[in-house]
Automatic annotation (TrEMBL):
Transmembrane found in the keyword field: yes
Regions crossing the membrane: 627-644
InterPro entries cross-referenced by the UniProt entry: Ig-like_fold (IPR013783)
Protein origin, superkingdom: Bacteria
Keywords annotated in UniProt: Membrane, Transmembrane, Transmembrane helix
Protein name, entry field: CARDB domain-containing protein
Species this protein is from: Anaeromicrobium sediminis
Length: 658
């Protein structure tokens, strides 16, 4: 029995020795490296050069050698750092058991990195002391913030040869493309589409290429557009399809519409003007005088079959021919003209309007007309003693009259004769081109009499045509009257009334994303349109509010009638909760009146999402558990042996006593 127990004890001691040897072998030959234990989530800004120090912990008791650490890059486009093959791998000679080492990486954050938390797998390759290879890896989390405006091209301006593209011609349009972003772009391809059989490309080149556009800068592309002669007036839409890359070769695609105003043949007009007008300050009856000027074509198109006519009515007659044929007046060209006229005998002392009419054609057979008046003052030197009525004052209630509105025209009639009374006065208003029409009455009225050196006043209610253009319009006031002896007289006066179109800037609501977060850049945008018939000048757009603002001010300048544009900016709420602001449009109308339009911004910023770093798993204490089992077995074995010896001794003592 004793031999059996001795054998059992020897066996337990052998087991303890074997297990201890195995434990020692495993501990010495299996180092384990933990990457980034208890490492806080680093936060880097786009475009910055950064240092990323990652801790490595050798949890074993043995040394790890020839350590190489690197990020695992599966998709370079999704990697937030610029890749430098010379520095992407870092090496460490060795890390002793139960020691740690920080491995520094030097990166530059890509300017186009997304504003988010990136998961990057880092891997370490190393050798054990016995020369075998091993590796460990771990996902680390890196927060990238990016308040840079990402690649985005906007059409800043569409330049036409004139205000509109004429039908029946080929016109070159020039597009100003603005790189609104904070990044350079390259390899830009701009394709224009959306044509039909009436609006086409004249040279069949639909794609323009631009090598690069730096951040915030502009580039131009040009296309030759052919408009069929049968196209009616209106605004026509074409589409720009743009493809380009950023500096990291990431590809982008965009589509944007452009709107081209087209004038049909029935609506086309050229910009003709009378320049360097020369005429005498005053002339006497029967005195010849010269009226000269330069007829200038300020349009990009030729004026054809040009004919110029002067007409001063019955009191001023032509001495030379009143009609001159110019033929074709080329784009940007001028032609000097001179007419000789004289006031006839008996012409009264007053200012006479001389009408200069210019007829021309653009294409086809339709004749266009341009008219301008030149005033000639005739002084009869007291020769005439006939009573004369003049308009010595008139008022229309404002500096300008808006198209489509009614207004009161106050007229003051003055009898200049110092001895004679005039009576039975019939006054007729003849507005130029039918721009003004009477309201509630005819265009004539009656004044019973006006005494010598006396005045009479009359008010007419008129309405302006809704489509009247911005300019001064003449109203000819024709008067028929008698003196005390019944002699009949006529007189005409011309007055001018300036007409403007009401400015009509239409602004869309501010576009916001569905969710807005505190301390996170948020893009806003607004579309705006000039829906009026007049030009808007000095347009400036600004954003204000209870938040930080980036790229908040935009100077547009002039916005033609029928034009549209856009505005975008970046706002950054600095705290959670509600915040208000506004996008403000300030501009001047055609006559300099300053106007302001505001569009409200209302946001409710949510809490910035928190990024939790997952806890690194603690290494399992396999060696410690094995040791506990071995010690337990030894204790049990020794305890059992002592218990057996004690029991045997007690039994022997009992046997002796018996």
């Amino acid at each position: 029995m004793y031999r059996r127990i001795s054998a059992l004890v020897v066996l337990l001691l052998v087991l303890v020795s074997v297990n201890t040897t195995v434990f020692a072998y495993e501990t010495s030959s299996s180092p384990r490296i933990v990457i980034g234990r208890k490492m806080d989530t680093p936060v880097f800004n786009a475009g910055e050069e950064v240092r990323l120090a990652i801790p490595l912990d050798n949890d074993s008791t043995m040394k790890a050698r020839h350590i190489i650490m690197y990020p695992v890059i599966e998709d370079p486009n999704e990697f937030p750092f610029e890749i430098d093959k010379a520095t992407i791998k870092r090496s460490v000679g060795s890390i002793s058991g139960q020691s740690s080492e920080k491995v520094p990486f030097y990166f530059k954050v890509k300017e186009n990195a997304q504003d988010k938390v990136y998961t990057i797998n880092f891997k370490v390759d190393y050798e054990t002391e016995n020369g075998s290879s091993n590796s460990d890896s771990q996902n680390l989390y890196i927060r990238i913030t990016n308040d840079k405006v990402q690649p985005n091209i906007k059409i800043a301006d569409v330049k036409l040869p004139g205000k509109e593209i004429p039908s029946g011609k080929v016109s070159r349009i020039e597009l100003d493309l603005n790189n609104k972003s904070d990044l350079d772009i390259k390899d830009l391809e701009v394709k224009i589409t959306g044509f039909d059989n009436k609006i086409t490309l004249s040279d069949y080149v639909d794609t323009q290429r631009v090598e690069s556009i730096k951040a915030k800068e502009y580039a131009k592309v040009k296309y030759n557009i052919k408009v069929d002669s049968e196209v009616e007036s209106g605004t026509y839409s074409l589409t720009l399809e743009m493809k380009y890359k950023d500096k990291y070769d990431k590809e982008y695609e965009q589509k944007q519409n452009i709107y081209l105003p087209v004038s049909g043949e029935d609506d086309q007009e050229l910009n003709l003007a009378l320049e360097n007008i020369s005429s005498p300050k005053e002339v006497s009856p029967n005195e010849d005088f010269s009226l000269s000027f330069n007829l200038k074509n300020n349009s990009p198109y030729d004026a054809k079959s040009v004919k110029v006519t002067v007409d001063a009515g019955e009191s001023i007659l032509p001495k030379s021919s009143s009609i001159k044929s110019v033929g074709t007046l080329g784009a940007g060209k001028g032609q000097s003209l001179e007419f000789v006229l004289f006031p006839k005998d008996g012409a009264e002392s007053k200012n006479y309007p001389v009408k200069v009419s210019v007829e021309y054609k653009i294409s086809g057979e339709k004749t266009q007309t341009f008219e301008q008046y030149v005033g000639i003052f005739v002084d009869d030197k007291g020769v005439s003693q006939n009573p004369k009525i003049i308009i010595d004052n008139y008022n229309y209630g404002n500096d300008f009259i808006k198209a489509g509105e009614e207004f009161n025209l106050d007229l003051s009639f003055f009898n200049t004769n110092s001895a004679k009374t005039v009576k039975n006065i019939k006054v007729t208003l003849k507005p130029e081109g039918g721009i003004f029409s009477p309201v509630g009455s005819s265009n004539s009225f009656f004044i019973e009499n006006i005494g010598s050196k006396s005045r009479a006043s009359k008010t007419m209610k008129l309405k302006t045509k809704p489509d009247a253009k911005y300019q001064d319009y003449n109203i000819v006031v024709s008067m028929e009257y008698e003196d005390g002896s019944g002699s009949k007289y006529t007189a005409e006066e011309t007055i001018g009334v300036p007409v403007i179109q009401d400015s009509r800037l239409v602004v869309s609501d501010v576009e916001l994303p569905d969710e807005v977060f505190a301390n996170t850049p948020t893009n806003i945008s607004v579309d705006f349109y000039n829906m009026g018939r007049s030009q808007i000048r000095n347009l400036i757009i600004n954003t204000k509010g209870d938040f930080r603002i980036k790229n908040g001010t935009l100077y547009v300048g002039n916005l033609e009638a029928g034009s549209d544009n856009y505005y975008d900016a970046t706002i950054i709420p600095e705290k959670e909760g509600g915040a208000k602001g506004a996008v403000t449009f300030e501009f001047d109308d055609e006559v300099g009146n300053h106007q302001i339009i505001e569009k409200e911004i209302s946001i409710n910023a949510q809490k910035e999402p928190e990024i939790e770093m997952p806890e690194m798993p603690e290494p399992e204490e396999k060696d410690s558990s094995k040791m506990k089992w071995i010690v337990g077995l030894v204790i049990l074995g020794v305890g059992g042996f002592l218990f057996y010896k004690k029991r045997k001794k007690k039994t022997e003592e009992v046997g002796i006593d018996e």
